[in-house]
Specification:
The chain has 272 residues and is mainly alpha-helical. The chain has seven helices and no strands.
């Protein structure tokens, strides 16, 4: 569990660095879009139209892998929703086994579990820091082993063991709520993919009509991508679609968590 958590943390760090780099490049390219709205690109101040096209090209290249990650996140959330539902049923039926406990399910059971390596640390590690880190790893592994032993069915009849087993039902209820949230997060990710996919395709029109400016000798696949529109119409409609999608997306980003919270099933109060 500890090793899997560390590997997950490494993968998350690498992905965050990659996504941050792509978003940074898109943010810089967005400056040219803003200037284009003010018709500044009609002059030669920031590279003119050619500078705008280069910025759009960079933006398209960086946005493409982000679209893939949006679909991947949607699939992961949908799969997580199904797994949470299945796991909560196992908890209610008392079917928890050693094979069922991994880094994911351990984190689900302990919703607040946060090993020390999940916190930001300094990139400059001394030998003394390394020794302290080794001790912290040993302590964390010891805690994990102790917790797993308490979670598994046994003949132990201690009060602590009984309390843990009684809490399984409450944990299952919490996991059901998380499963609903994961399902709605899937829909939200698909909406992000739709908004950014339309923006990607729309801004692509500007790049196409710049490099294939002569409509009489345009390849058939370029005309198909423009849906038969003229260069001027394809550029205008594409730019409008991109601007519209990236205007609507912030409302979904800001309002999404509130909608998901509202759509959660209401917690039933148990009356004894």
């Amino acid at each position: 569990i500890a090793n899997a958590s560390l590997e997950k943390e490494i993968r998350g760090t690498k992905r965050s660095m990659f996504v941050g780099f792509c978003v940074f490049c898109i943010g810089i390219a967005f400056f040219w879009l803003f200037c284009n709205s003010l018709h500044i690109t009609s002059t030669d101040w920031i590279g003119g139209v050619q500078g705008l096209i280069h910025a759009l090209t960079v933006m398209e290249i960086c946005l493409f892998p982000l679209l893939f990650l949006m679909l991947k996140d949607a699939y992961e959330n949908w799969k997580r929703s199904k797994q949470l539902t299945t796991f909560s049923e196992q908890l209610r039926k008392g079917q928890l086994t050693k094979e069922n406990i991994n880094v994911e399910t351990f984190g689900w059971i302990h919703g607040s579990w946060a090993p020390f390596w999940s916190n930001a640390v300094s990139g400059f590690i001394t030998s003394e820091d390394a020794q302290k880190e080794d001790k912290l790893v040993e302590e964390e592994v010891s805690k994990i082993k102790s917790t797993v032993e308490k979670l598994l069915p046994s003949k132990d009849a201690s009060d602590e063991k009984k309390m843990i087993l009684q809490n399984m039902s409450d944990i299952a209820d919490r996991l059901d709520d998380e499963a609903h949230s994961a399902k709605y997060e899937t829909y939200r990710e698909l909406m992000y993919f739709f908004f950014n996919g339309v923006a990607f395709y729309g801004y692509l029109m500007g790049v196409l009509v710049f490099y294939f400016d002569d409509e009489d000798v345009q390849p058939s696949h370029v005309r198909s991508l423009k849906f038969g529109y003229s260069n001027q119409d394809a550029d205008w409609h594409g730019n409008f679609a991109g601007d519209l999608m990236w205007t609507l997306e912030p409302f979904v980003i800001l309002g999404g968590p509130m909608v998901i919270q509202y759509m959660k099933p209401k917690t039933k109060v148990k009356i004894e």
